[in-house]
Amino acid sequence: MEKTAIILGASGLTGRLLLNQLLEDEEYASVRIFSRRSLGLSHPKLKEYVGDLLKLGDFKKDFTGDEVFCCIGTTAKKTKDKGAYKKIDFGIPTAAAKLARENKIKSFLVISALGANHNSNVFYNRTKGEMEKVVLNQKIQNTYILRPSLINGKREENRLGEGIGSIIMKMINPFLFGGWEKYRAIEAETIANAMHALAQAKPDYKIIESDKIQEIGAYL
Length: 220
Fold this sequence. Notes:
Blueprint: E1 3-8, H1 13-24, E2 28-35, E3 46-50, E4 67-70, H2 82-102, E5 107-111, H3 123-137, E6 142-147, E7 151-152, H4 160-172, E8 186-187, H5 188-201, E9 207-209, H6 210-217
Parallel strand pairs: 1-2, 1-4, 2-3, 4-5, 5-6, 6-9, 7-8
């Protein structure tokens, strides 16, 4: 059966890699992307919906398909206002999950973060944890929450802090074993691979920590 995929965050590092994969996958007849600006891409499978993602409900009639891949995310440096940050990292994924439930979409995959915990005293971790809780409460049949560590990859924008962190993590990655493996930096392509694979395999578990993402996505 040919499927329709929905991607949120296709302009970002992981989202763009995933988009390319799904466009090349013969199992997908259509890929719908929802974004605040056009990516300027042309492909017979691709359909763009451009608008305000903070008002995702406006897209309800077009938000239909078999799978939702939510790759939305910002940074504290890029979005310094905590209210604005929460509208993006909490508001958009939870609105997407609610729309998916209402439109009877059976698979929902979302990128969260290592350390996500709705009880955390750290704003970033707490926001991600609160997002996860709302997503899981939608009871979508195939829900997968990915918690990557620091994400490596070539970004369009220059993030100095992440660049330095990436260099440091590459140096210490070989020394992280056992329970510390989930703290290893991970390639964006590996995350995209894992999301793609999870959508096909539909395993029973819901939360995928960074070391498990690495295991799932390393060989595709």
